[in-house]
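Summary of Year 1 activities. Much of the first year was spent building the evaluation harness for sequence design. The harness presents a backbone, in tokenized form, and records the residue chosen at every position. We chose the following record to illustrate the format because it has been used consistently in internal testing since the harness was completed.
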């Protein structure tokens, strides 16, 4: 079936989740998770948003549900990302925090907050993450794994691993050739240096593990241990990921969990066997999503090309960002920041269709589902939106204090706005002007960056044909005569070209060269109206 015909993906999942919860006679638990390692970007957001959609639909259908988000805060600090976000979501070069690399190999919950505003590294970056989610209207129940270890919630699972250590070794060696049958999937936290370290034995009666602090292989490097030898309780350590994840399913009683393709080949495959054979539980309904590229590149915290929700909300509305995740997750996509106007246009189109339905087939059902999930709250009537690229043009030309007034005037003359505007409409317009201006200054492709020249560039004038010069003189005269609408102005262009014996293409490139210094630009009629007819006429006359 094509994408248009099949049932909305999250709807399909919601039905499966409800069916399983009913069969088991339990609350449906939609689970997702994250390691608060610092560079949690909009690719990681897949996990939470995909789960959130399913959660919303399950709730809407009247099924009792919980939305649980694990914070894997006992994971070790593996590296210090190139840049770190403060609580306001602003970036700082991690060179400002050179001492952080001394904490590599320590659990994130015991690494200090580089900014000093929270109790730990993990607490800080969980807060940054949560703030981003909340701005999208997403409020999962974020649970600290560190707290669970301390409370003993992991005890039964750790004990099962040790009780069945032979079986554990057999299972893991079939999935990971490098791990022998003597493998112990548990690390202790060294009481002396705080580093996570492999263990050598366990004592089930006393619930302790024995180890010599010798560090651990992290990202193909080895952290140095302090050499301490002794015992700690099983609450002062952590199950390794392949065992911790299935234990989380048990603790949370997870019904459903989405995860990335990277987990699918590895920990998901072994996780199902561990869940059933070691823990005696049923794994959640899985859902695998693809990662996406940003402007054709993979995001990477160590490279530094990561974008967080807070970055995105400087250039698009929350609903436009959320909309991106309503798309089918099983296909690799490219999110283009350079051309973010395309995504905004797509969203506007979706919204238009939602409020002006044409047919009532499957496609309309999908449109309704995608729109409702994108919106924190669905408005009663179609909100007014200015096309993004248009907003960006206006915002770059018009001075900040007159921006809204001028934009509304232009929208009236271009036919985008008729009648009275509500306060809500004005708020929407003002927001998009601000967002698209920031975008133009920081991300936009070259053709969307507009800087109106004070004076026509001499080179361009010299190269111009007689016909081109003549057409611009005609245009200047017309612009002085009366106020035009966009459409009327468009006719003026074609007339001027025709009367001067040049093609319309030659006319347009001459106009852009004079006004912008480049051969192409935004739609000329709206562009001239945004600058102001008289203003443009003055510039054209100065050219002579
Ligand atoms: Zn902090
Ligand atoms: Zn140590």
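For this record, the design step produced the sequence shown next.
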């Amino acid at each position: 079936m094509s994408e248009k015909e099949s049932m909305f993906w999250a709807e399909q999942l919601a039905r499966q989740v409800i069916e399983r919860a009913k069969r088991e006679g339990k609350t449906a638990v939609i689970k997702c998770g994250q390691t608060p390692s610092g560079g949690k970007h909009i690719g990681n957001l897949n996990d939470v948003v995909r789960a959130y959609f399913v959660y919303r639909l399950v709730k809407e259908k009247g099924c009792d549900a919980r939305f649980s988000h694990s914070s894997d805060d006992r994971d070790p600090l593996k590296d210090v990302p190139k840049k770190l976000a403060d609580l306001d979501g602003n970036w700082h070069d991690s060179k400002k925090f050179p001492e952080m690399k001394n904490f590599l190999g320590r659990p994130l919950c015991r690494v200090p907050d580089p900014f000093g505003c929270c109790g730990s590294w993990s607490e800080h970056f969980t807060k940054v993450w949560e703030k981003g989610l909340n701005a999208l209207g997403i409020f999962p129940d974020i649970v600290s794994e560190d707290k669970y270890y301390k409370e003993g919630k992991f005890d039964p699972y750790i004990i099962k691993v040790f009780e069945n250590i032979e079986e554990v070794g057999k299972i893991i060696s079939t999935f990971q050739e490098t791990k022998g049958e003597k493998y112990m999937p548990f690390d202790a936290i060294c009481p002396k240096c705080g580093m996570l370290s492999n263990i050598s034995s366990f004592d089930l009666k006393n619930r302790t593990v024995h180890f010599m602090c010798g560090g651990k292989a992290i990202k193909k490097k080895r952290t140095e241990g302090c050499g301490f030898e002794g015992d700690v309780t099983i609450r002062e350590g952590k199950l390794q990921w392949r065992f911790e994840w299935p234990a989380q399913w048990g603790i949370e009683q997870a019904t459903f969990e989405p995860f990335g393709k990277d987990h699918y080949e590895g920990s998901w495959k072994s996780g199902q066997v561990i869940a059933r054979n070691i823990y005696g539980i049923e794994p959640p309904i899985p859902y695998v999503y693809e990662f996406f590229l940003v402007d054709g590149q993979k995001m990477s915290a160590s490279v530094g090309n990561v974008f967080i929700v807070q970055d995105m909300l400087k250039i698009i509305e929350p609903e436009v960002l959320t909309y991106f995740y309503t798309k089918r997750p099983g296909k690799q996509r490219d999110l283009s920041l350079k051309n973010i106007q395309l995504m905004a246009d797509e969203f506007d189109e979706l919204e238009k269709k939602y409020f002006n339905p044409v047919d009532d087939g499957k496609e309309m059902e999908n449109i309704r589902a995608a729109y409702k999930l994108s919106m924190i709250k669905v408005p009663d009537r179609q909100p007014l939106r200015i096309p993004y690229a248009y907003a960006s043009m206006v915002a770059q030309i018009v001075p900040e204090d007159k921006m809204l007034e001028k934009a509304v005037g232009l929208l009236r003359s271009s036919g985008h706005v008729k009648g009275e505007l509500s306060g809500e409409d004005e708020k929407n317009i003002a927001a998009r002007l601000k967002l698209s201006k920031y975008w133009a200054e920081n991300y936009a492709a070259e053709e969307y960056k507009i800087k109106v020249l004070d004076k026509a560039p001499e080179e361009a004038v010299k190269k111009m044909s007689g016909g081109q010069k003549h057409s611009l003189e005609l245009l200047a005269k017309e612009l002085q005569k009366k106020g035009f609408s966009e459409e009327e102005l468009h006719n003026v262009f074609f007339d001027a070209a025709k009367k001067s014996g040049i093609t319309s293409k030659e006319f347009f490139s001459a106009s852009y060269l004079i006004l912008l210094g480049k051969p192409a630009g935004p739609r000329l009629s709206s562009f001239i109206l945004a600058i102001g007819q008289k203003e443009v006429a003055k510039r054209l006359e100065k050219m002579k």
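Residues 1-5 have pLDDT under 50 and may be disordered. Quantitative recovery figures across the full test set are reported in Table 2.
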